[in-house]
């Protein structure tokens, strides 16, 4: 194992813990942000490259808000190369076949997936697999997603919607392109996040928060001045795939505010 792989394995143990323990906080701030964003106009926001979005489906208001506040980086769409679409469709086919058994969420639990914040009612639940998270840093296996995405529906609490893949935080965009062509899909990462000190967590619910994924603070200096905990990035590179979408352009949608099960 080379130095980079050794570092990646050590880091991913920490990431697994962060994904499981901290993702709840991210989800909660995202949920609050979604509620605030429903009445805001969609469209381009500072700090986010919107080129090519016609082919990617709409970016949801939550991601738009995070990007506009400097808390989201999305890989720019590359010019389409020969074979890109076929490669992406092959990945989606493998995803769909690989997760078929997890339509029964109990099988996911039996296979080592853990629900992030199961006691909190969420429109979308992340079932995270620690072993898959660590393995994803080293190579890409569509049959082993970092997380399974389930949607709460009127008839079914855990209805399988899609998957989330991750890779090591130091992966280059060329390496991301090798996994899923960047002419078809965008990877993203959460950046420049300032978590509130314990005595100021109510700020997350403010109309104009300073802290969290939707906060106005996006620099270490400003975060330190407010006694916050600054993270230059949260978790790792990630991408969502919704293989049950009948329209291929929606399979890699960056709008988590709407359901992708029908």
Structure description:
This protein has eight helices and seven strands; from the N terminus they run ααβααββαββαβαβα. The protein has one domain (3-251). Residues 3-22 and 24-57 have low confidence and may be disordered. The chain has a seven-stranded antiparallel sheet. Helices cover 34% and strands 18% of the residues. It is α+β, with helices and mostly antiparallel strands and 262 residues long.
User: Helix coverage percent of residues?
Assistant: 25-40%
Distance between the termini: 44 Å
Structural class: alpha+beta
Residues in β-strands, percent: 15-25%
Domain module tally: 1
Rounded mean pLDDT score? 79
Ranges where pLDDT stays below 50 over 5 or more residues in a row are 3-22, 24-57
Give me the strand/helix succession.
HHEHHEEHEEHEHEH
- Coarse shape: globular
According to DSSP, the number of beta strands is 7
Largest sheet: 7 strands, antiparallel
């Amino acid at each position: 194992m080379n130095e980079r792989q050794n570092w990646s394995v050590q880091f991913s143990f920490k990431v697994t813990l962060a994904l499981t323990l901290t993702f709840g906080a991210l989800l909660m701030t995202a949920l609050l942000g979604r509620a605030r964003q429903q009445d805001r106009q969609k469209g381009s926001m500072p700090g986010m490259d919107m080129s090519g979005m016609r082919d990617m489906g709409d970016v949801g208001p939550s991601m738009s808000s995070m990007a506009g506040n400097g808390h989201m980086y999305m890989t720019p769409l590359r010019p389409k190369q020969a074979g890109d679409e076929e490669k992406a469709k092959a990945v989606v086919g493998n995803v769909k076949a690989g997760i078929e058994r997890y339509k029964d969420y109990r099988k996911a639990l039996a296979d080592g997936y853990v629900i992030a914040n199961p006691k909190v009612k969420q429109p979308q639940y992340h079932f995270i697999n620690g072993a898959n998270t660590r393995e994803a840093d080293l190579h890409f296996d569509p049959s082993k997603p970092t997380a399974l995405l389930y949607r709460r529906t009127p008839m079914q609490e855990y209805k399988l919607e899609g998957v989330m893949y991750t890779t090591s935080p130091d992966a280059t965009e060329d390496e991301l392109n090798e996994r899923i062509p960047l002419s078809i899909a965008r990877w993203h990462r959460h950046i420049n996040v300032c978590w509130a000190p314990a005595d100021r967590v109510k700020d997350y619910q403010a109309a104009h928060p300073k802290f969290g994924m939707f906060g106005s603070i996006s620099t270490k200096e400003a975060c330190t001045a407010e006694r916050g905990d600054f993270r230059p990035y949260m978790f790792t590179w990630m991408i969502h795939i919704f293989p049950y979408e009948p329209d291929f352009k929606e399979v890699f949608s960056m709008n988590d505010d709407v359901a992708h099960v029908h």
